[in-house]
Amino acid sequence: MGNAFEIRNLNVYYGQHQVLYDVNMNIRERAVTAIIGPSGCGKSTLLRCLNRMHDLQPGVRVTGEVRFKGRNIYDDDVDPMEIRYRIGMVFQKPNPFPKSIFENVAFGPRINGYRGNLNELVERCLRQAALWDEVKDRLHASALSLSGGQQQRLCLARALAVEPEVILMDEPASALDPISTAKLEDLILELKSRYTIVLVTHNMQQAGRVADETAFFLNGRLIEMGPTREMFANPREKKTEEYLTGRFG
Amino acid sequence: MTGEWQRRRRVRQRLDRIFAAVFLLAIALSLLTLVVLLWDVVRDGARWLRWEFLTSYPSRIPERAGILVPLVGSLWVIGLTALIALPLGVAAAVYLEFYAGDSWLSRLIEANIANLAGVPSIVYGLLGLAIFVRGLHLGRSVLAAALTMTLLVLPVIIVATREALRSVPVSLIHGAYALGATRWQVIRTVVLPTAAGSIMTGVILAISRALGETAPMITIGAWAFITFLPRHPLDGFSVLPIQIFNWAARPQPAFQQLAAAGIVVLLAVLLSLNAVAIWLRNKYQKKAEW
Predict the structure, then answer these.
(1) What's the domain count of chain A?
(2) Is the pTM value of this prediction over 0.90?
(3) Please, how many CA atoms are within 13 Å of residue B277, restricted to the half-sphere of its CB?
(4) Best exposed site among A31, B54, B68, B288 by fewest CB in 10 Å?
């Protein structure tokens, strides 16, 4: 299996304040990579570098390279719309549009000029997100009538509908109850055979349950990265061990 | 200790009641004034508030005088103003909010728009006279009036629309971008539908303010006495406040009463516009619950 992302010498600044320092790491294709670390360590910032979401925030500066399938997505001739089309994202807080369930899933295909059968696509994505059975009778009800866990799975279905190659998840379970969280984790395991998944989480147990590889960040630096089981059993760095054993964080 | 606390509590509770009374008095005073004013106007004009009043042309004889021409004129001016000012104002606000960035130029424009909203309306009237009536040779027409009113309400509409655009949650905007949407697609499919209710409210309130404007209409030369209805935007016109002003300026009591009746009609149009604004806001709020 190859690499989906190769990150080289990545630095990120919010104004004068540097939040990521010289990050170098590879993210494997069709695997789940977890990014863990305490609040403010830069893990969400890193995730947002992968689909150029920082472009939307004034005052953020990114240097270095993020190569996606061999091509630096920060090159001048790269269209950020195309990057975000190929690299989907699920946010920390469920953010369905104030439209119907159907329209939420159909949103991405519509704006990207999808020509196929929209009904089939919506059903397929809702099934993939394990939401179909719960909403099939009320596809045209408002998405805001769903519970938090359902809304987050809807957002996942919405991301899947543009058939991305990668799904970025920014603490997707932090606003969910344990049962919804378990459902979401099962989904992640199911989806990894077809998608590259990068998961930011502050929950080490979650990383341990779903991630093939884990990267540990502290104060804007990548401290350690490796296969999850190996890293959890024998961390190479003292800081990683301290974090994993709950000494801080 | 306990006695002291009890005593202080009684003082605090008394203060509480005093302030409740002060606030009640404030609202009662303003409402009372309004009620007295309305009552006075309605009583004066009641005699003339008949269907014929709405459907009659102006006349020198009070019994035959009606408000049809200025009523239709006001509706023409307001309608045209809405047609021009709404797309222009919303587009300008969208530009400032999503395209202009945060340069010194955009900050300068922003500050100036806020200031323009406070410029006295007669200044806009003079501007309209110079540019539209004379410069563009539109004459004393409905179109010249609507364009002048557009200048007047545009800053208010832009400010209100920007507020509405800013209230759209960033999470929704980012959600749309994350699906590969272009900036315009984000604006069209997420931002404008979500903000539509508050935008419409702001626009209607701005335009209903224009309905009562008299000074700029006098300046650009609305007719005081005109016996035909405007048929297209270049026709002459009169508006409600001018008609009311003219009647009120006459010495005969009958015309004074006609002025009162005219005020009632003007208020009715105003309240209907505001009712539409409230209805629109409720309708869109129901669609976009958080």
Answers:
(1) 1
(2) no
(3) 18
(4) B54
Per DSSP bridges, beta strands A166-170 and A87-90 are parallel
Residue A109 counted as domain residue: yes
DSSP state of B174: H
CATH class of B53-287: mainly alpha
Strands, sheet with A60-68, edge to edge from the N-terminal-most edge strand: A17-28, A3-14, A60-68, A71-72
Interface of A with B (CB under 8 A): 51, 53, 56, 58, 81-82, 84-86, 88-89, 91, 93, 95-98, 107-108, 111-112, 142, 144, 155, 158-159, 162
The pLDDT tens digits for B105-124 are 888 888 898 888 888 888 88
Separation of alpha carbons B9 and B145, rounded Å: 62
- Each domain of chain B, given as residue ranges in start order, spans 2-48, 53-287
For B193, the closest chain A residue by CA position comes to: A98
Residue A1 pLDDT exceeds 70: no
- Residues in chain A closer than 8 A to B178 (CB atoms): 51, 53, 84, 88-89, 91, 159
Q: Is A174 helix (H, G, I), strand (E, B) or coil?
A: coil
Residues in chain B: 290
- In A, minimum Cα distance to B182 occurs at A81
Q: Is A12 a domain residue? A: yes
> For residue B289, what pLDDT band results from cuts at 50, 70 and 90?
very low
Q: How much is the ipTM here?
A: 0.91
